[in-house]
Design a protein that fits this description.
The protein has 156 residues and is an alpha+beta fold. The protein contains 4 helices and 5 strands. Strands 2-1-3-4-5 form a 5-stranded mixed sheet. β4 and β5 form a beta hairpin. The longest helix is centred in the N-terminal third of the chain and has 23 residues.
Length: 156
Amino acid sequence: MKLDLTKDEKRLVAYAKKKTLLNCKKRKSNGLCDQLVAFVLSESGKIYDGVCFESELPTTNICGEAHAIANMMMAETKVAKIKSILVTSPFPRETDKGPMPCGKCRHTIHEFGTPKTTVLSGAFVKKGKDWIIFSQLDKYNAFKLYPNPYVQTKWD
């Protein structure tokens, strides 16, 4: 089945294909592991990268999606909105499903997204000396992935 991607989503996928391995190689050279990488396309048309931050204290870990969103917010202010986010991670073998945002990230995507925000998910796999990037890509509506967001209770 052919995935129906918008022009902007195709641009995001092309950007992510170029940057995924570069980000992972940079992390490896700094002694880190190649985990989830995320790319946010803001409504302004700019793309922001994010990678996981792992600490010895697990409660301080930061997801790649949150890092990419934080980069967007730092560059564009709090009114920035996510048009699309692509999440990718290395898998040991080809898979029919890529990684999905955790609950905390689904909430953050919902908070800084719109009802039209999309989540793209694709894995990358090393095959011999080459990498297969996004042999399978899936598309979801961010608000359907997180249909009942937390809303702060008003105590007035």
